[in-house]
Amino acid sequence: MVVQSFDTIWRATGPYLPTNSSKAGLFDETRQFLRVLDERRDLEATRLALLDGGLLQRSRFTRMTILQFIKRRLFGWQPPAWVVDDLIAFARDPSPDALQAALLLHVCRQDTLLYDLAQKVIVPRWQEEQREISRSDVQRFLDEAASGHPEVETWTHATREKLAGNLLSILRDYGLLRGSAQKQIVEPTVPSPVAEHLIRLLLAEGISPAEIPHHPDWRLWLWDAERAALAQRAMTQEGRS
Description:
Blueprint: H1 27-40, H2 43-54, H3 60-75, H4 81-92, H5 97-109, H6 112-127, E1 132-133, H7 135-145, H8 157-173, E2 177-178, E3 183-185, H9 192-205, H10 225-240
Antiparallel strand pairs: 1-3, 2-3
Helix pairs in contact: 1-2, 1-4, 2-3, 5-9, 7-8, 9-10
């Protein structure tokens, strides 16, 4: 067992935080972290191995900062061991799809700003068949959110600019967007084991089976309740066989 959970924080609540203003998705680095963790089976040994040259970045300080971000994103919420084992399994897959979909889920659930951006901006645009999204759309969202989240008004212009770009980059790195300067919303590829991972996650969080297909977490993948119900039914039938 890689980690032991004592007080799992299933999802972030509270104020918006500008923590993502300095780093984007770090997908390749996160996959490498999980693959080394699979070998070492110890968080500190994994950190040291990557700090001492297991990442491509030349600066030791940069590697240290990246590892701090990855550790906080993956383990700051005290996940159960089975969650980490699933992430490791997704990282083993040569295709990036499973890990991208899982990281999109977990990183959004642990960041109220990123989660709300996806739910209140990305999802409605997709439903309205509007595919383009830009930094100005994120800035507009922050302006509108400031009445309920006054902490936004304390951020500098530079912080907001950097944050707006990185939030979109995170969603691109995890498969919800594509493009560089001009980004477009796309439906992520979600392998069935990742859908099953979400079902198990919601059950562990205390969501009843009847409520699961209607939970907003599915919308992070642009799924509707019908599609979620099909995934839940398939998992149930597989468990019976």
